[in-house]
Predict the structure.
Amino acid sequence: ASSGLNLKVDHKSHRAHSGGTGGVKSCTNYSPVVKSLVEAKSSGFSDVLFLDAATGRNIEEASACNIFIVKGNIVSTPPTSGTILPGITRKSVSELARDIGYQVQERDVSVDELLEAEEVFCTGTAVVVKAVETVTFHDKKVKYRTGEEALSKKLHSMLTSIQTGLVEDTKGWMVDIDPCQG
């Protein structure tokens, strides 16, 4: 069984365009990815990683999750500049990474940087934090750090421990709901 996602970089189609709905939670963001996703899954990939429509050189996000790369103590993720969904999980994971000593940068991340990263992971409502095991770009396949040593594993554990009440929520992220109030 795979310990992480296997992504295919789609250099032909784009998930979002400047001035479009890429930066908001909308069903219109899923239809542009369907064809690429079906093709990738039929070839054995978990998901598709899309590049920016403006230059075709920078990574943006996968079909339904944000992406991060790790090199040394620097965690980088593309900026939310209108084509990337500013996810709550993305924001929470960025904050947790800073808390444990990582420098988190929101900036353009090139495909070359992606291919040279030590670790890659995705965040989102459904995946929470999920390691990327491999990325394939054209005919180049790169394998990344996954498993117990991976930052993604630590961040997943930290976030889900807060979400499930295993550790105290010192951030004020959790909200008590009184089931008796109506």
Observations:
- The domain at 5-163 is CATH 3.20.10.10 (D-amino Acid Aminotransferase; Chain A, domain 2).
- The beta strands are 5-10, 47-51, 59-62, 66-71, 74-77, 103-106, 119-124, 128-137, 140-143.
- The first helix runs from residue 34 to 42.
